[in-house]
Amino acid sequence: MSQSEKGKIRIGIGGWAYAPWRGTFYPKDLPQKRELAFASQRLTSIEINATFYRTQKPESFAAWRDSTPDEFVFSLKAPRFTTHRRTLADAGESIERFVASGVAELGTKLGVINWQFAPTKTFDPQDFTAFLKLLPRSVHGQALRHALEVRHMSFHTRTFLELAREAGVAVVIAADSPYPQLADMTAPFVYIRIMGARQSERLGYAEAEIALWARRAKIWASGGEPDGLSRLEDAKSNRPMRDVYLYVIGGEKVRNPAAAMALISRLNN
Fold it and tell me: What are the chain's domains?
């Protein structure tokens, strides 16, 4: 299968401002204001964590856009003020405020919005149905992609998968973590967060593990579903190609850039 018959694969890390990366990932003499530019030359995506904690300004999104290569893509963690509430159906104003904060400034560099829920958040079908209806499909003509990062076993139901599929949103695939995994496909793209990088491994993961995740990314991009992941439904093949967003998050965070770069290198070989 040619590259034109596959979705695009984006590989990255969470954020770019992390002191232990200075001298390990970043050169010791690199000014902090140039860290994003440096990272974006070596990765193909970054999941922005700052949007989870506080509202950003349009000027910030524009600066991030202008500091990165043309093909680079950002994903955004949606505000915790939206996702960490008792009743999601009441989140309309919070969602509108976030989307209007300047995310459209990213233009074609806007990837996926990750709506991460607390591990204690349980599945309420009626409430989640209402929440999904609140998610905008576009902003200023820019299409929006949404992913749901759920972390409670109550979401392991076909009802939840059907709601996500009907809304065209992805369910985040959690890997190498204590969180429950749902690898069922519900959207025309895939969003994976691998969270098990280890200090003992120079690349965060063993070479065989890097090769495995690279192979899985290629399978997803070509429309298949790789083996070895937890699903509620049988895996299906010969589906349309999908874009893939894979982030190395958490674990021994100092190793995450090395793992992401190793994955990109493996994809290109």
Answer: 3-268 (3.20.20.410)
